[in-house]
Amino acid sequence: MLLSKINHFLKNFKPWKNPKFWSRLGIILLLFTTLISGGITIYISSLEISKLQTPLAQPSYLYDQKGNRISQLSSSRIEPVTGQQIPLVMKNAIIAVEDRRYYEHKGVDLRSISRALYRDVITGDFSEGGSTITQQLAKNLFLASDKTLARKLKEAAYALKIEAVLDKEEILEAYLNQIYFGEGRWGLQNAAQLYFAKNADELTLEESALLAGLLKAPTIYSPLNNKQKSLERRNLVLSLMKDQNYITLAEYEKAIVQPIVLKKGSLSDLSGQYAPYVDYVIEEAINRIGFTEEQILNGGLQIYTQMDPAVQEAAENVYEESHYFPKGKDDQIVQSGVVILDHKTGGIRGLVGYRGERVYRGLNHSTQLERQPGSALKPLSVYAPALEKGYTPNTMVSDHPLNINGYSPKDYDNQNRGYITMQEAVRNSWNIPAVWLLNEIGIESGVDFAKRCEIPLEKEDHTLSLALGGLSKGVTPLQMAQAYGVFANLGDMHKAHAISKITTKEGTVLFQVQPEVVQVTTPSVAYMMTLMLQEVVKNGTGENAYLDRPTAGKTGSVELPHTQEFSGINKGVKDVWFVGYTPELTAAVWMGYDNTDRNHYLTTSGGSEPAAVFHEILSRALMATPVVPFEIPEEYIEQNELSNKVYKWFQENFPPLESDKDQFGNGAKSKGKDKDKDKNR
């Protein structure tokens, strides 16, 4: 009965048929809309955009590990240009590629931003485009570059305020004077001078299109880094200009066949001293801490770093001396990168990321380049994990011919030595023992240790080729130096970093590094690995790295790919490495071509030039440093004392029989199989 009454009420309850309902709803909606509109209007009116009229930059300063000022960063050398000095083709190119409805909207293009917001909500990362030129100007001047909905809404509000104060030509002028064009250059005039050695008002159609194309990704599309990508991007901009009727078909067809002609200007005045290190500081501040490049160059920041001038100068000076490096080709030099760490803190004491002409924030071969490490990975993927499982440097490993499910590695001399000690296998960098041992301890043991050292591995790297450093993606010299620091620092890994602290000009701390220490392995295992790697430098493949102080390290060479392109080349390699350390510093050196092909490959090894560069840099950097030994951990001493006591007790209580004496070097003979078993221990 009750249910039927409720159903009857619901069926007959139709408030929308009552005129009062609509009038009340209309009043409520009107009040709500008025409140929201009023609130938005008040908020937008309160926004401060006076910076548009006074865009003067404050230089940022860098300091070394002792607090000495070492370099100045600034974009205050911007030479502003007026709207009349900006060529029409430049304005049109920017509008065509960045904001085709620029003259139609009022700062926010609802059509495109709605489409972008829809995709943002779907993906959840708020990384879609849709920003107008006015919004980009607002973001660059007033907002951080975080990818949040709140930031996008603020960006829109600022854009509306800017459009209410400035006209379209003034906004475009401010945008082109503030935007980043790559290679450390902000503003159209600086970009024109850098890339074409001319003033902004002299830019041609092709040059304007090239500069407009840079804005999406200045590093990727830089004509100084990659002319082909820059050309493709430029021609895309020209196509958009044609489609939007800014140029005719004839102008388009004439422009796209023009080659990129650069007249590069100087960059030395921007970065000042220690440019290779400063470039990485900017990279770390942006990618790991979250600052924008505009904040770094214009924000008056005080950036305190881990740089040691003695180490950095030693590295830079060696990299300026070509005789330490393999001879390249006329069209391509052999590139290289080096990182030097204080393994006790993780502080990057010095680095050089390139050879030859500097490209501001170009490819950093010490921190960005990823290449296969070859045999330099063996201590991380095979020998250290074997030590963790109870193997010792004197354990016998197999150097017999090997074939495991079709995988048949060879030693570089194509010889076999039967059973040898693990120490001998490391010292001479034989391949077969490394693969055999990884198979014995289990691939996942090698994977686990490498991952603990923060060596990035893909799923397809979980194979026996891991023993020889055959990674699908590769590693950077920075990652290798950080990993080897585990051995140098008795099992503890400190996260590598260049920046210690960033403050405002007034001293307010904006960022303070937090120590990140991970115990990767035991002190005893780390020290045994150091003993083995010292032998590599004293009597093995790394002799060229030998210093007049305790030194340990490992060489690495990566064969050319087994493809048709390299068929018939018998003694060619793609990459060569040396990674090593002293009690004070750990360093990784890589060498190779940016683009390896049949005409550009190496015929050297990690024990040649990379080891020599390691030797030269560290000998100069540590010239005034007292010589000290590697620290011997207490647990290693205790373990050896216990082992000696056990061995002595065993000898006293169970002396060998006459028939067994040969196994202990006393003259008797043993059968072949038993002898092999003994060596397998």
List the quaternary state of the chains. single chain
**Uncertain segments of ≥5 residues (pLDDT<50)?**
266-271, 659-681
Which term fits the overall shape?
A: globular
Share of residues in strands: 5-15%
- Rounded to an integer in angstroms, the radius of gyration calculated over CA atoms is 32 Å
Helix proportion: 40-55%
Discrete helix count: 24
| Helix-strand category | alpha+beta
Tally of DSSP β-strands: 14
Biggest sheet layout = 5 strands, mixed
What number is the mean pLDDT?
85
Q: Give the neighbour order of strands across the main sheet.
A: 2-1-3-9-10
Euclidean distance between termini CA atoms: 90 Å
Biased composition (Basic and acidic residues): 671-681
Transmembrane segments: 21-44
EC number: 2.4.99.28, 3.4.16.4
Subcellular location: Cell membrane
Task: Supply the key terms.
681 residues; alpha+beta; five-stranded mixed beta sheet; five-stranded antiparallel beta sheet; 14 strands; globular; disordered C terminus; multifunctional enzyme; Beta-lactam/transpept-like; Penicillin-binding protein 1A
